[in-house]
Each structure stands twice: as structure tokens, then as C-alpha cells.
Amino acid sequence: MRITLTLVRRWLSGPVLAVVVTLVGLIATGLTVAGLRAAQRASAERVMDQRAAMAKAAVLAETDRYRSLLAATAGGLTTDSAMTWEDFDAATATLDGAGLKGVASVAYVVPATDAQVPAVRKLWRARGSDGLVLRPVAGAAEHYFTIFTRGLRDDGSAAGLDLAGAAEPAEALVDARRMSTVTVSDTYVLLRDRHLPADRQQHSFVFAAPIWPRTADPAFRGWLVLGLRGQDFLSGVLSTVSQGQLDGELLASNDDGSRPAVARYSVPGRPDLERQSLLEVATDEWTLIVRADSRNLPGARSSLPTTVLLGGILLTLVVAGLVHVLATARARALARVRTATAELRRQAGLLGAVMTSIGDGVGVIDENGEFLLHNPAARKLLGVPEEPGDPGDWQQHYGLYRPDGRTPFPQDELPLIRALAGESSDGVELLVRNPGRPEGILLSVDGRPLDPSAGQRGAVAVFHDITELRRYENDLAVFAGVVAHDLKAPLARIRGHCEAVAESLADGDGDPQEWLTRAVLAVDRMGAMIDTLLAYTTARDAPLACVPVDLADLVRDVVQDRVGHLPAGERPDVLIAGLPMVAADPALLRHVLDNLIGNALKYVRRGAAARVEITASPASAGWTRVTIADRGIGIPDADKPAVFERFHRAHAGAGYAGTGLGLAICKRIVERHGGEIGVADNPGGGTRFHFTLALEEYAMKLKKSPVEDDDQTRARLERALAERAAMERTALPGLSALPSAAPSAGDPAGTRLRSPVPHHHTEEPE
Predict the structure, then answer these.
(1) Worst-scoring range by mean pLDDT, 292-306, 334-348, 414-428, 700-714?
(2) GO biological process: any one (predicted)?
(3) Are 181 and 617 in contact (CB under 8 A)?
(4) Rounded to the nearest 5°, which phi and psi values hold at 138?
(5) Which residues, listed in sequence order, are joined to residue 630 by a DSSP beta bridge?
(6) What distance in Å separates the CA atoms of residue 628 and residue 614, rounded to the nearest whole number?
(7) 77, 260 Cβ separation under 8 angstroms
(8) What is the DSSP letter of 408?
(9) Which of 108, 326, 576, 712 could form an S-S bond across to 148 if both were Cys, CB 3.0 to 4.6 Å?
(10) pLDDT for 577-626, tens place per residue?
(11) By C-alpha distance, which of 607, 593, 600, 505 is closest to 552?
């Protein structure tokens, strides 16, 4: 054994060891150079991502500006019931100086049948369209004539053109009128450009804004139409943002499934980088493709790799020479170091394993406030991998606030700073909110001075995540407040009615049936409140059972439950169109649809009939956006930010019944499905609620809480199932607040919550 070790030592000595060091040095140098070149490529990729994002943002900003200007101009014309050329000229004059890239003209368009053509011509000649000649297209069921036009880049096209001669703008006009919103057409050649030579004709679009007067019974007045040339538009946008480094190509998505290239923009170079972006423009979807030559992007060229290569070779040769000289002495010194540090390495490895394994965050700083140690749990809780050198930067770097989430946490009160001063602290609560933790996380921190046996002055802190604990405490407090306030009133009413029954029986006069009926109504109200509270809690913990769901069938089922009992002449106008197959839990999804459709039928102006449109449109890849639009009383702007909060009621003082939990339950259910929910005004009056769902052909991606592992999640779901089973065994009301997938389940509590009667009063008769 000794002979073998001696031979190994001799083999590793002198020139052989120097050769080994040389090889290692050259390999390391080569890897470093390769890494630098990879870094240059990565830098070019990052710059490409930034330029692509800028191009996408510029295109979206321009198209959104066109849409907003068109909608605002059309909105200004809704108040003018007898519009003339002077009114149109004044309303569209601001568009001349708006710098609308690629926009050819703006026109006012009205619909007319063959029989209405003479009357329409006479009316608009009288209102200033001198010499108006209407040229209807043969065979069209309805014509769309340009009455007034204003050219923005050149002379406006002649009035009297029939846009029914091109299917693309005609379909955009029909969709705009039906959906009461700005729409964009499929790509086509503008009618005004079809007389130009073929090499000057461009693929173009039109934006169409409907003009609906804001009255109780609106009569449609027409459209404001903006013509956009694709090549001029793309060249105008990319010439500004590309800095001569990006090629661009704009693709449209037509209704027939085709994706024609609308426009191209080219710069010198041989592109080897490409990015694609989907753009939602009004009701359509465009694709923007940008390409670049990486050699023209910043960070792609540098002499640093060559310098490192030469320097690495030189340094390797120098080190190899030193190793050759010191080989024997280094080997003996290395053996002594290995013997002396073996135990230290074992203890350090054990400490590292312990720090990596524990779930609480641990941080250690030296006397200057620089971090000596951050275990993985601490980095995960704080959300920021980098460590600032100056303690004065901690608050801004990590985003440290008091528990209120607004007040910055003072530096001198931080547990680690107090521990450096020799003061221990326990249970100090602070909120961490930064780009890594955008939603914010509440921590409880314990701080201690570093034990003197460590050999240096410092401090140690332990972080505990108490976000869920505080959230459950807040939910419990709110729940207790609701029970104490909202359930106390029905109980007091029941007691009063029962006392009235007792008095009437004791006196022998009066009819106790009336008082018993009122008591039953109070019990129903209290039961509905309990159902809603249980539904709010179950919507968070109930297990998801996602299966393919025919959204159109489910919506029709919910609408039938809501309005099926009404006479045919009293049923509201409900439009259902374009609903796809989705992946969702049918029972929970039914609750969302029932609540939103019920609100659309309920919150209407007194004496007016409800009108609801339920449609779907593409969202991001693999997702669909479901929109429920009504013509009701709307939601005040001040209430929109809080409409999905617990116990918030936008119309609490207007005589509409409710608990303030329905939209909060919908938000929980949609977010558990991985989607988003929001609300906006309906351009024609009323409200538009929208939420997103995954399409059937894509896997459902549920959001998982970052502070729970699989065992914790499974335990919570099993606990929720056990609680629901216990409530069913004890015949408690409320489980039907989450409706079953089958509308005819026969649950009386569920029937009560899904009552189709759009009631407007909250109290039973006195």
C-alpha cells in the first residue's frame, strides 16, 4: 500500500502535475470564452426581447389610441339627434392633427334597405351632403352608405359609397352594431384604393364605432368608420421604435381562419432572431413578427472573449510553471490542510444541510450589516435573491413595511439592527412586498445577537410566514361581524312575529297566519345569508373536479332556471352566442354564471325590461374570455375597485336585495380555475362582467399557493369534504349555495338561491 502511494506521489510530481495544470487551465479558459460568447448571445436575446416588447407596445398603443379617439368621437355624436355636415366636420376636426399613422379617412356611415334609399338621400342632402348620390350594391339585403367623409392623409373618398360591396367592412359594421362596441374588420383593399395600380394597393382595415343614443329605447343612427392602410401604419410605427435594427411583419387573423401578411418593414442585415406577439385589437387578433440581425444589436460584439482567451493561456502557463516549482512543497502543505480541516468540513456540511432543510428563514449578518448567511427558505420568503451591502437600503431593496402595507418599516426598528445593538426581539411583524413578492407576505421575525463563540460580532434573525394565519384570523373576524350584525336582525324579527302570534292567540282575535308568514320570510332570509357565507368558505377549499363542459348548454340551463317560469311575453331578451367547450368544475362554474346572469336580470331600471348578451372571445393562447353584458343601472366608478370584495354592495341603498358576497364568491371560483374576472361599463349603457376560462383542449393550470406543500393542500381539501359531509348529515341549509351540475336536483335551498324573480326589495311586508 505504501509503495502504491509513493508511486502515485511521484507520478503527480514535477512535469506531470504541471501538464495537468496546463490542460485544466486551457479547458477552463475555453469554457470561460464559451461562456462569454454565450453571454453575448444572451445579451442580444434580451435586447431583442426588449425591442420586440417596445414594438408590440407601440402597435398596441397606436391601435388603442385610434380605437379610443374613434369611440370618443362617436360618443360625442350620440347626443346630436339631427347631425349635419357642420356637426360632423366639427366633431372630426381634432383627428386631422392627431398624427394617426396610416389612417386614410374617417366617414359617417348609415344603414338603409333598397326601399329606404330615396328617403336617405333626401334626408342627408338636406343636412349638408350636397349632391349626395347613393350607389347601392346589387343583391345586398342592407346597404351601408358613406354620408360624410374627411380625408386625413389625402382627399376623402366620395360620399355615397356602399360598404356592402366588401364583405369585410360589412361584417365589422354588423358586429359593431350588435355588440355596441368598436370593432375591426378583416384585412382587405379599401374601396377608395381599388382604382390605384396594384403595386400601390395596400392591405387595410377599418375600425367601426356604433352610434347608439343613450335613451331608454335607443334607435340606431349609424357608424363612425376609420380606414387604416396596413403598410403605412406598420412603417410609421416601426420606423420610430426599431432604431434601424428590426424587420417587422404584421399578420391578420381573418374569420375564415387565414392569416394574410398585411404589411412588411425591412432593414439591412441578415436576421437570425425572431419574436412573435399576439395583439388584441378591438374585437380582432393580429400577430406582429419582428426579426433582427444579432450582430447589429448592442452587446453582441466585444473583444472581451479574445482578451480572456489570450490572458487565460498566459496565466495558465505562468501557474503551470509555479506548480512545477512548488509541487513537492504544495503536496505536503495540502495534506496538512486536509487533515486539519476534515472535521471543520464535516461540521460545515452538517450545518449547511440543517439550514437548507428547515422551513423557517434564517439570516445572519456581521457587525457591518453584510449578510454572512441566507438559507433557501429565507431567500424564498424575502423574494429577492440579491443581498444589499448597506443596511440603509434594506427597506427599499426588500420592500419592508409595517403590517398596514403602507408605512415603510423604520430601519432602527428592524430585528437584525436591534440585535446588532444587543437587543433581542420576538414576534416583530413586518410586510414584505417587492417584484418577487408582488402580492406581499406577512412575516414574524425573531432577532438575537450572535453568540460570542462565533468569533465575531453580528446578529441572527428567524423569519416565520404568518400570512395565512392572519388571513384566516381576518376572515374569522369578518365572519363574526356578519353573523353578529346581519343574522341578528332576522332573529329579532322572528322573535317579534312569534310574540305577535302568541298575543293574537291569547287575545282570541286576529289571524296568526300573517305573522307566521312573515316569520317564515325572515327565516328564509337568514337561511340565504347562511347559504351564501358557507358558499364563500367552500369556494376556497372545495376540491376542483375539472371536466369538459359545454358552456353554451350550461348557460342555457342557467337562463332557463332564471326565466323559464315567466310568461312568454314577460321574459327578458337574452342573447347567447359563440360559447366554446371549456375545462372547468361544472358545479362551481354554474354558480359563477348563475350569479352574474342573476345580477344582469336583477339590477335593471324600474319598469324597464332586462337585456343580456352572453358571448365569448379569444383571450391568451388556450383561454377564452366570457362576457356578460347588460343594459341595467350600471355600477358607479367609485364602487368598481371594491365590487369583488367581501360584503361590499354597490347598490345597498337603492332597494336591491343581496348579501355582498356573490361577486366575492365568483372571484374565488374563477381564480381557483386559474382565470381572471373584471367589470367595466357597457358602451351602450349598463355593465360588462368578464372572466377567463381554459379551453377544453388545453390542460387546466391551477394556481398553487407558494406557502403550502402537497400534504397541506390535500389535508385542507379533505377537511373541506368532511365539513360538507357533516353538514349534510345534520341537514344544515347552505350547501346548495354551490349549485349542482344538474339543475333539477330538487334541493329547496338551492332553488331558493337561484330564484328567477328579479326582486327589488330586501324586507318582507310589515
Answers:
(1) 700-714
(2) osmosensory signaling via phosphorelay pathway
(3) no
(4) -65, 140
(5) 612
(6) 5
(7) no
(8) B
(9) 108
(10) 999 999 998 888 998 999 899 888 888 887 788 899 999 999 988 899 99
(11) 593
Q: Which three cell numbers stand for residue 591?
A: 354558480
Q: Cα(689)–Cα(681) distance, rounded to whole angstroms? A: 9
pLDDT at 655: 45
User: Which residue is associated with the grid cell 375564415?
Assistant: 256
Q: Residue 193: how many CA atoms within 13 Å on its side-chain side?
A: 22
Sheet of 284-292: strand order equals: 261-265, 247-252, 284-292, 273-281
**Among 475, 446, 450, CA closest to 462:** 446
Q: Are 519 and 651 in contact (CB under 8 A)?
A: no
In degrees, to the nearest 5, what angle opens at C-alpha 83 toward C-alphas 78 and 86? 120
Its pTM stands at 0.39
Q: State how far the Cα of 614 lies from the Cα of 616, in Å rounded to an integer.
A: 7
pLDDT at 552 over 90: yes
- What does the alpha-carbon distance between residue 590 and residue 503 come to, in Å, rounded to a whole number? 46
Contacts for 745 with CB less than 8 Å, ≥ 6 apart: 736, 739
Q: What's the sign of the alpha-carbon dihedral 124, 126, 127, 129? A: positive
Q: Rounded distance, CA 112 to CA 142, Å?
A: 6
Contact 666, 648 (CB under 8 A): no
CA distance 188 to 203: 5
Concatenating the DSSP letter of every residue in 438-489 gives EEEEEEEEEEEEPPGGGSS-EEEEEEEE-HHHHHHHHHHHHHHHHHHHHTHH
Distance, in Å, from the CA atom of 311 to the CA atom of 326, rounded to the nearest integer, reads: 22
- Angle 186-187-192 from CA coordinates, rounded to 5°: 115
Cα dist. 262→62, 99, 207, 267, 269 in Å? Answer: 16, 21, 15, 18, 22
Distance CA 484, CA 465 (A): 30
Burial tier of 636 (Cβ tally within 10 Å: 0-12, 13-18, 19+): exposed
Packing angle between helix 14-77 and helix 304-357, nearest 10 degrees? 90
Torsion angles phi and psi, residue 299, rounded to 5: 90, -5
Q: 10 Å Cβ neighbour count for 195?
A: 7
- Phi, then psi, of 437 in degrees rounded to 5: -130, 65
Q: Which are the contacts of 312, defined by CB distance < 8 A and separation ≥ 6?
A: 25, 26, 28, 29, 32, 33
List the one residue out of 758, 640, 752 whose CA is nearest residue 688. 640
CA distance linking residue 130 with residue 159, whole number of Å: 10
Q: What are phi and psi of 402, to 5 degrees?
A: -70, 165
Q: Phi-psi bin for 286: left (phi > 0), alpha (psi -120 to 50), beta? A: beta
Report the C-alpha gap between 175 and 675 in whole angstroms.
Answer: 26
A 10 A CB-CB count for 132 gives 21
Residues in the chain: 766
CA distance 512 to 502: 8
Decide: 146 and 163 in contact? Cβ < 8 Å. Answer: yes
**Cα 280 to Cα 229: distance, rounded to the nearest angstrom:** 18
Q: Which three cell numbers stand for residue 662?
A: 356573490
Beta strand 611-618 with 573-577 is parallel
Residues of the chain by 3-state class (helix, strand, coil), percent to 5? 50, 20, 30
CB burial string 488-499: b at 16+ within 10 A, e below:
eebeebbeebee
